[in-house]
């Protein structure tokens, strides 16, 4: 006899990390409710990638929520600012979108509480990444604490759990997880600066991290890169 279904909201951007994260949530036995945010990002192709991933994983509840962050700008992903191509540096790059994960997780928390789920998955990574502050373990821990005092469910003693299963994995380990889960990396999209012919640029931080991870893991990435 099986117990009641477990429900989790998973942030599904369409990138490699979020794809692996969604599959891990399914593997853990959760009914996945996938949330993609259309925030006016330069790399809008990732939204279509999220839809393809949801279909592949047979996620029946996939919501694409509009939240136009171009109104604020402040990032190369939401304003007319050139995407840097010199590689991953020590400073927080201009591709950082102000408070993006805070906003996304707030939406995920709202949906989770509404549907009665108490679990949220996010594919952030604190090792092979561009140094964004809203990917750090301190942020993840802080938001989980915030969820308890920001919701009716939390006020009534229920606990929300924020899962970040890729938090301490290298990009190579994440690529290996994709292979283990039977996922084709080419379904996902990582590039911040898609080219007119549909190719990934191959030079932005996200492309560099993805390619290096695939190479280190010995996994073929059939993504078409301009460089």
UniProtKB/TrEMBL annotation:
Pathway: Purine metabolism; 7-cyano-7-deazaguanine biosynthesis. Its cofactor is Zn(2+). Binds 1 zinc ion per subunit. Its EC number is 6.3.4.20. The keyword Nucleotide-binding applies. It comes from the Bacteria. ATP binds at residues 12-22. Keywords: ATP-binding, Ligase, Metal-binding, Nucleotide-binding, Queuosine biosynthesis, Zinc. The keyword Transport does not apply. It is an enzyme of class 6 (ligase). It catalyses: 7-carboxy-7-carbaguanine + NH4(+) + 2 ATP = 7-cyano-7-carbaguanine + 2 AMP + 2 diphosphate + 2 H(+). Zn(2+) binds at residues 191, 201, 204, 207. Gene3D superfamilies: HUPs (3.40.50.620). Belongs to the QueC family. Catalyzes the ATP-dependent conversion of 7-carboxy-7-deazaguanine (CDG) to 7-cyano-7-deazaguanine (preQ(0)). PANTHER family: 7-CYANO-7-DEAZAGUANINE SYNTHASE (PTHR42914). This is 7-cyano-7-deazaguanine synthase. It comes from Blastomonas marina. The gene is queC.
